[in-house]
Amino acid sequence: MNRAKDRIPAQYASLQFFYWMTNLSIYSFSSAFLLPNGFSSSLVGIVMTLGSIGSLILEPVLADLADRSRRLTPAGITSLLAGLLILCLGGLLAVQGNGTALFVFYVLCYILQTIMQPLINEMNFFLERAGHKMNYGVARAMGSLGYSLFSALLGVLTQRFGISMIPLMTIAVLAVMLALLAMLSRTASSSKDQPDVHSEEKQNPGSLMEFARTHGKLLLLTAGGTCLMFCANACGSYLLQIMNHVGGTTENMGFALSVAAISEIPAMVLFERVRRKISTGTLLKIAGIGYIVKHVILLMAKSYAAVLFAMVFQMVSFAVYIPAIVAYMHEHTSAEDAVKGQSLMPLASSAAGLLSSFSGGFMIDRLGVGAFLAACVVMAVLGTLIVFAAVGKEQNA
Prior knowledge:
By secondary structure, this protein is an all-alpha fold. Helix content is 81%, strand content 0%. The chain is built from 18 helices and no strands. α3 (41-68) runs antiparallel to α17 (338-366) and α12 (250-269) packs across α16.
């Protein structure tokens, strides 16, 4: 039994490993897939904008359902979403050349991939409450490792065998995710009768409006996170255009994403240890400053090497922000509102995706990459100021 119990954290870390591969292929390789299909940067931006709107609408509804349901577990709902995503990716392969159908399927892929995130994050705490020794920082570091390895691989495969490799490889990854989710679902089912997991914690889940009224500071923090994630999403969506701006290629883009993801791993692995000495609120402030530094370097970059140097600062921006915001939301929300709390970070990401997609393609097409990167610096500064205001002064954990 103990040996089976020890496997659960490894299975969850593996789930993060593969989930972030799907994020890479659908989000960061969106331009790589859509531009060769006749889409302009502006039209790619519209695709991502509509995907962000859909995510913004569905994420709180899905989070409320997950918090209220006694029968549906985060693993079960995620399995359903993963199956639907496989169908939509198959649709991408079937309709290449048909701009309208491709547009619709890509928007659906974006939405389905995004709304899985709060469920996967909450799964960590669900399993922790069921008695398993979980470490979110290490698990999320595995996600960065998967992102890194897959970015390098997908960049090479796309360059050599064509853009169909993007949905094909993502389908293969999702098949592995479904197997992992089946294992975790069995664990969740065996925990259903534990009072600390279900009966006690989900007696009185609040409504969405009640949650908004009682967690004003968290909503302000989400606004700051939206500005910071604007920078992260913009860099992810339009990195190919940034790379082309300094003379790079799709393969170079894949390598740059790999460097960024590798840089994240040490910070995420050490997060729980650092968290014992520095409060999560302070870590969020540090992440904001890291975002400013990274995007100033990108704005000033004149070569492929300079872009790679900027990507190293992922270790003190995104790599600190992601585990810190997950932990902060867990610390500041009750168990009955757990998924709603975890949905705020992907909500910020979706809102940021909406803003960056709507403005990014337009700015790049009309004003150039330089103006777009300057806007990212402004958003990084604004987001950091809001995070400082929302978190205030906190004592070390």
